[in-house]
């Protein structure tokens, strides 16, 4: 599937709203004014999932790009999207896009300083050392501030999914203290074609409330009593609209390495987890992945037309309090919970809700839900 068939549009030809166009010019002016500063100046772009942060960031990057400017993203699948778009954008090179760790290690070794560094999904930057992945510092954003004249970042603290990449407003302010900082926020939802569904998801993940399901005319929102009918629906949606995929919270056993196939069981549904994608094409753009279940590691940052989301065992509903409840012991992504000083149960619960938020906001035109736990499933069906 060529990139033009996907809905993840990053190219400079992508249609920007007047607000996005004005913001693009504002950031470009900021870069020009500070690219000779000795101490890094920082532009911070805040925004919810689907608010167009990546589109604006890449629009600025392609507009001002010159040697010594780099765009970084700490996510393999998003990096593939960027490189695929780069191959279709005149004057932009695939090597201009890379992950933060190799960039930091290379620049520290050379002693060079970049004119500007752009960081997408900055909430995925490491905020502690990770020797296994060759990062020996303690804060990747702090390192980048030493390696560039200008740093432009986009962030959403509600998309933090690992304790080793734990960010919040306090840590961001602490890291940027003493630097020239400007910021802006994108609040309009561009991915999901129904604000009412986005608001429903926000109540779920931010307040742990379950509201009656909205029924927008331009968005297909359904709850299923079993995983197999959800999968059947996704296949039908893919045939009609393309880019429909099954995705799930990381509540099902898996290991990153090895040849063993790991499975997601959701009612009568039995589908394999996604595997490490060694191709240069994003997971969701490969037709064979229609018969797999994706995770945040393959879908974060990517737009689907329709998302079939399995809410796993860590997410449940308590009828007495009428609230979503979290059981962190049932969350299988132990890498996300790697021990971190000063962070505990509250942060773990927040990460699980962040994962649910990311997954439920993937679809532009539709969202199907199946909950493994009976209480949550029955409550969702009743609200439908």
TrEMBL record:
<dbReference type="InterPro" id="IPR027417">
    <property type="entry name" value="P-loop_NTPase"/>
</dbReference>
<protein>
    <recommendedName>
        <fullName>Schlafen group 3-like DNA/RNA helicase domain-containing protein</fullName>
    </recommendedName>
</protein>
<feature type="domain" description="Schlafen group 3-like DNA/RNA helicase">
    <location>
        <begin position="41"/>
        <end position="372"/>
    </location>
</feature>
<dbReference type="InterPro" id="IPR018647">
    <property type="entry name" value="SLFN_3-like_DNA/RNA_helicase"/>
</dbReference>
<dbReference type="Pfam" id="PF09848">
    <property type="entry name" value="SLFN-g3_helicase"/>
</dbReference>
